[in-house]
Amino acid sequence: MNKDDGGSRLPKWVAAVIGVVAGAVALGVAQLAAGLTNASASPVIAVGGAAVDRTPPALKDWAIRNFGSNDKLVLISGIVVVLALIAAGLGVLSRRRVGYGMTGLLLFGLVGAGAAATRPDSGPFDILPSLIGVGAGAWALSLLFRRVELNDWDDLPEEYPAAAGTSAWTTDPEYSEYPPYADEGEPGEDERDADEPGGGEPVPHPAEMPPVMRAGDALYTFDRRRLLTGVAVGVGVAGVAGFGGRLLGASKDVDLARRTVAKTLPRPAVAAKPIPAGADLHLKDLSPFVTPNRDFYRVDTALVVPSVDPTDWTLKIHGLVDKPVELTFDDLLRRPLMEADVTLTCVSNDVGGPYVGNARWLGARLADVLRDAGIRSDADMLLSVSQDGFTCGTPVDVVMDGRDALLAVAMNGEVLPAAHGFPVRQVVPGLYGYVSATKWITEIKVTRFDQDEAYWTPRGWSPRGPIKTESRIDVPRDGDAVPHGPTIIAGVAWAQHKGISAVEVQVDGGEWREAKLAEVNGPDTWRQWSIETDLTPGKRVITVRATDASGYTQTPNYAPPAPDGATGYHAIGILVG
Ligand SMILES: Nc1nc2c(c(=O)[nH]1)N[C@H]1C(S)=C(S)[C@@H](COP(=O)(O)O)O[C@H]1N2
Ligand SMILES: [Mo]
Questions:
Q1: pTM of the predicted model, to two decimals?
Q2: pLDDT digits (tens, 9 = 90+) for 325-348
Q3: What are the TM regions of this chain, as residue ranges (predicted)?
Q4: CA–centroid distance, residue 349 to ligand 2 (Å)
Q5: How far apart are CA 303 and CA 285, in angstroms?
Q6: Which of 145, 197, 285, 553 could disulfide-link to 547, CB 3.0 to 4.6 Å?
Q7: What is 470-576's CATH number, 3.40.250.10, 2.60.40.10, 3.40.50.2000, 2.60.40.650?
Q8: Residues in the ligand 1 pocket, defined by CB under 6 Å
């Protein structure tokens, strides 16, 4: 056998399978190590995060358009597929020398470790999961190669015709070194039992067979049973470690911390205006006035939800201020907290899209906190920074103009959910989320738009993002079949901090008819609307447009979400029967 040159006769596909299994073990063990330490130190998550930050804006838009909130899942799946292909290649390379495959694994481990060490929220120990994973993967690789390959007579499967007959003398210590006859000549007749089946002629090891006899290569250069068990054990280890790591990393401390905070959450010093009974028309399929937390859209760049411990959380406020401050979570809760109903909207929300939701927030007034720090008059931007390094650039004048801009700690009467920014996030009525709604906020640098840039600005989105007046039809849904006759059309419209003053609906390009507006308790939320129309059979197109309290009516001209929010009328097509 080619033990001497380190080569292997394993068929390529077997080597590729071993490579993939070793790669899976590496990733699974790394995930487990990350779960025990810091979930975002997982190499896949770290490399994925680095990829997110480096994704060209056009690709990112395309991904959001095509995969919606599944874009992260698609990204991670893509990374895993690429890694599997590379691992298969490393397996094949390992046929030359297992060391080559191990070196390849190490290189990938270094890429993972490098990504984990350079994420904005990473610490020095974050390289460990990648390195531990690589160690496990390299070990699995060499173990599987040794295990699956038939290098010795002992390894020959029982059904190999000569195995039974030769086992008697190959276990003899004198001949334990294979091949016994290669250097020492044929063992004497007397040293073998010619009566054993298959005895007599020594059967050359498959690797030593002349080419013409190697038809059996695929059968006899590896042990199928050992391959199967090796793959099963490897995949099992990878699966259990990886899944366990995910469970451990998912929510271990945050759930407990949220429960603890829930016990001490102060009551609002200033309650929100009550929501009028007429704010919600309670129509089937119409977005409820208050979006339940579990249904609230989620948009962020975080591949794992950052876990922030409120007991060592602080908010640093510095830059163009007279006295920089650092607030603890308790400091924040000691301030008078106020409630406000505010509808968030994502700039990526296309016309008719789902990235808009309304909640009741509880928090400290951001303007008061800034005033206490002595914000200087030449400042025009708040660069807020999240635990994971994401940043928003919020205009100072907007935050200071008296609107309910909050450092929020609760959402719909519940401690802020982890995915929505626990323990503290910003909420600013009237601005798209990407310039205002920093989740997991840890820092506010008071600065100027001509000196600093927030996360999305160099990625092609406008530095400032006031929300554009929009409206959406929820009922019926696009493509629905509805019976003819009187039909309720309903939906929501929003123009945060201005308020909606009218909504009009049009059937098949006909006359605009004014819809009935539901009640609201302020200008910062969306507003439900409905109208009854008499529909005649056939294909019908229904279009909506809103007018805000400044008198502005939505433009019919379509604009895509980038760079500063979509415009145009939402229209649906239905089949009236
Ligand atoms: N830390 C952090 N905060 C963030 C983001 C992010 O990527 N990271 N995305 C922003 C964007 S684009 C939007 S639209 C809102 C969405 O808030 P939600 O996920 O609670 O709905 O969060 C904002 N805050
Ligand atoms: Mo957004």
A1: 0.80
A2: 999 999 999 999 999 999 999 999
A3: 12-34, 73-93, 98-115, 127-145, 227-249
A4: 8
A5: 30
A6: 553
A7: 2.60.40.650
A8: 296-302, 344, 346, 386, 388, 390, 420, 433-434, 437-440
